[in-house]
Amino acid sequence: MHNRRRLVLLVLLTFAVAIAGVVIGRVFVVPDRPVETELHELLHRDLKLDDAQRARLDVIENNYAIRRQALESQLRADNARLAEAIEAEHGYGPKVAAAVDRSHQSMGELQKETLQHIFAMRAVLRPDQTSRFDAAVVKALTAKKQ
């Protein structure tokens, strides 16, 4: 009887630890959703797009996905060059500085491309839809990290 009580206690404790792990993972480990994810949800779920708008947005999104993938590949290559420079110089030398500058340039290009994508999506919207879209953009860009 005593062993059975221990077993039940062990099972309950294990279950509680598992639940705590899930909660901790959801609160502290899950990354924030990208701005464009929130905007796409707003566009496709809440703004009641017509068929013509959906078709135009599909083209815009497909073009952006291709461009974003290329820019993200460039960023990965820049990071590899930065790692090589750090390994070669073991400090903040001219190679590291140049690699950081290249990386920042690529990051800036990705940010510009993302903003152009957001404005292209906005241009597809009707006036009655733009205020909600604009509010979502401002909210996403000014939200404080938790």
TrEMBL record:
Gene3D superfamilies: 1.20.120.1490. InterPro entries: Metal_resist. Pfam families: Metal_resist. This is Heavy metal resistance protein. It comes from Edaphosphingomonas fennica.
